[in-house]
Amino acid sequence: MDYNWIVAMSGGPDGGSGGGMFTLLWFGLIFVVMYLLLIRPQRKKQKEHEKLLGELKKGDRIVTTGGMFGTIFAIDEAKGKIVIRINDQTKLEFLKSSIAARVDK
User: Fold this and answer.
1) Which candidate among 9, 19, 41, 105 keeps its CA 20 to 30 Å from the CA of 47?
2) Domain boundary among 37, 55, 73
3) Same domain (yes/no): 28, 50
4) pLDDT tens sequence across 29-68
5) How far is CA 28 from CA 32, 35, 41, 43, 50, in A?
6) What is the helix (H) or strand (E) element at residue 72, kind and residue range?
């Protein structure tokens, strides 16, 4: 069996010194692609959600991450809680971070 192709792939009989640089560039390229496709959009979405939570006020119509719709009745910034009015008799308390979105009126 002829193993000359292995020597040719490795850069020569001395092991080749350019292979390490190519591998480093390859991993660098993979990291850049992962950053652009995964990390950056997630950070942007997280900043938008934090901005939404900061702009909430009493009377806003919202939906929670669990899919429950309601109107903000009270906000407790110190404890990070929001009281949501579902109807005239029902008020529920949620963590502020569980608010998914503001619903247009």
Assistant:
1) 105
2) 55
3) yes
4) 999 999 999 999 999 999 999 999 999 999 999 999 999 9
5) 6, 11, 19, 20, 31
6) strand 69-76
Locate 6 and state its tokens.
């292995």
What's the pLDDT tens digit per position in 77-89?
999 999 999 999 9
- Inform me whether the pLDDT recorded for 17 exceeds 90: no
CB distance 83 to 92 below 8 Å:
yes
User: Strand pairing of 61-64 and 99-102?
Assistant: antiparallel
49 near 87, Cβ under 8 Å? no
Is residue 93 located within the same domain as residue 69?
Answer: yes
Longest dimension (CA), the chain: 84
For the chain, the domain total comes to 2
Q: Which amino acid is at 14?
A: D
H or E, element range at 41 = helix 40-55
